[in-house]
Amino acid sequence: MKENILNMSEKEFEDLVSEENLPSIYSDDDLIRSIVELIPIVGPIIDGVIARIGTKYKEKRMHMFLILFYKSLKIIENRLDEKEFNEKLKWTETEEFHDMFNSAIDSTIKTRSREKIIMNVMILTNIISVKNNGEFRPEEYIYSLESLSPLEVKVIYIFYNCYKKDNNLDNEENDLQKSNRINAKEKVMEELHIDEQDLIFLLTRIEKSGFLKEITATMFDYEGGAFTINESLNRMMNYISKHPFSDL
């Protein structure tokens, strides 16, 4: 996954959502109208959510979600011919879409994690443009992310980057040896300023999401507490890397 929206600074992110080469959006009404024109079926869902949001923090999160959702669709629309785009939009008429969209919105308004909001949008809109023969599980990604706290999302992202940047091709190395060499836990503690006991607590919770797993080994001097990434995390990040925002 190359330098992309998840790695942007706040300033870079603000520049992205106000890019002149994408449709300008001046108010919630204009934004909703634009999205409804693209996907008429989401209008009632969005109206219902906005009517019950309630606080400025939730409104800000929802606005970010809608801006990114709309701009994602516009980029995808520009990359496909009209017939293909309209054909692929049919997934928005399914029960699966309604469930995923509602879960993504609930996840968005309940979190202050910018990363989670961005990932929700990328997962949802990728369904239109990414060929999937069963390799990817976008619905499960949405539900798994919903259960993670902002800090836990940062932890899995640091773990993923540590493993992704590893260039060692020793096929005889086991999971524990690789974990000790990469030392993702140390990187997390250093970047997020948390101690090992707090990190073990977080990793144990994250394990339930399926993105990380504790390593089990029979070595006499291994007392546990080592974690590695799951293939499900690799697949989700591979899926996200196919999103148009990854090119920006």
TrEMBL record:
Q: What is this protein's record name?
A: Uncharacterized protein
Lineage summary = Bacteria, Bacillati, Bacillota, Clostridia, Halanaerobiales
Q: Which domain of life is it from?
A: Bacteria
